[in-house]
Each structure stands twice: as C-alpha cells, then as structure tokens.
Amino acid sequence: QKEVEQDPGPLSVPEGAIVSLNCTYSNSAFQYFMWYRQYSRKGPELLMYTYSSGNKEDGRFTAQVDKSSKYISLFIRDSQPSDSATYLCARGIQGAQKLVFGQGTRLTINP
Amino acid sequence: EPEVTQTPSHQVTQMGQEVILRCVPISNHLYFYWYRQILGQKVEFLVSFYNNEISEKSEIFDDQFSVERPDGSNFTLKIRSTKLEDSAMYFCASRPEGQFNYGYTFGSGTRLTVV
Hints:
The structure holds two protein chains of two kinds. By secondary structure, chain A is mainly β. In chain A, 0% of the residues lie in helices and 57% in strands. The termini of chain A are far apart. In chain B, 0% of the residues lie in helices and 50% in strands. In chain B, a hairpin with a 2-residue loop joins strand 5 (43-50) and strand 6 (53-57). Chain A binds chain B through residues 32, 34, 41-46, 49, 51, 88, 90, 92, 94, 96-104, and chain B through 4, 31, 33, 41-45, 48, 50, 55-56, 58, 91, 93, 99-109.
C-alpha cells in the first residue's frame, strides 16, 4: 500500500475560484501532515502543517484532515495567478526524520 | 529571510565519475537533509544528519552515497560513481531543533545530469 497518493493533475481554474487539492494516505500512528508549494526550478516551500483532524486556516489557505477517510485537503480561496505552482502533500511520523511526499498536483490559475 | 543555498545549480557529469553537491544550511539549524526528485516523480528522502552523524537514511542511500559536514557551515552529498539513474534534482533542507519536521527550509536544488 502506497503511503501518500496525490492526483498529479494538471488542474486549471479561473482566477478567483476556490481550489481543492487532495491526498490520501495509509494509516500510521503519531503522524502529521504538511502542504508544500513548489514553483518551477525552486525547492518546496512549506505552506501549512497539521497533526489533528479538522481544519486549520491561514489567510486564503485551509488545510483539512479527515482521519476517518484518510484524506487530507488544501483549499485555496480567491485564487490568484501567483498561486500557479505544484502543490505537494507530505506526511511525517513523530520520531522519524523522513517526510513522505505525494506526487504533487500542478495547478494553473488563469487570469 | 534566511535561505538554504545550494551549489551548483546544474551539474553535468559522465557516468562513473564522482560528484559533490554542496549546501549551506541556515546558520542556527541543527538538522540537515538531502532529498531527490527524479523528473516527473515524487520528492524522495535520502538521508538526515544530526549532531555530526547520519540519523536516518533510506534504502536509496547505499554505499555509493555519503554525506559530510566538513566545517561549521557546509553540508555535502557525495555520489561516488554516478549512474544514469542518479540524474535528478537534489534538494538540501535544514530545520531547527523541535519535535516535528515542521520547520523545514529547502534549497532551490542542484540539477544533476549524468551522461
């Protein structure tokens, strides 16, 4: 069973739309989740992290974890062309050093 | 804002040659990492380094690979005898002390092309 799965897209939406990005994961104890944004030719940049079920909000971004369905989501409100990037979900386990990344979803926001 | 700096940005090498990829982590960070991303594939963990030793490594990180912190600022990844399949983006990352891997900062990567 693969650890973190993410639809690679590409996903293209008009400016101002609400974007929903999703990942599924296989279960493990003491785990936490992150969303990274990666622009072309750059390293991943941390957007948000969460380690519990429910929602966490930061400006236009909301991270959601549904442990019953093993789903993690990132919502982007009022999307902007500058949000165009690849979005990576990642999972860590407490006590372990490595992060396991999803495939990444390439997102384009059209003006 | 503090950055993780990687050099070179692009390296081309012949199969069988040794390469050293260099990184300058953020100065007050204590954990150091190498990840790689083969074109079109996931970002994959290679190795973590803490307190001057490897703290965790993946099955990819075999005897061909080594890491070193030769001085107080640099962190290097050496690939001893490169293979075609080593062609990838290599990302260095660092983070401060803390319970979880939340505070990672990644560098912009070195694109390694093995010909």
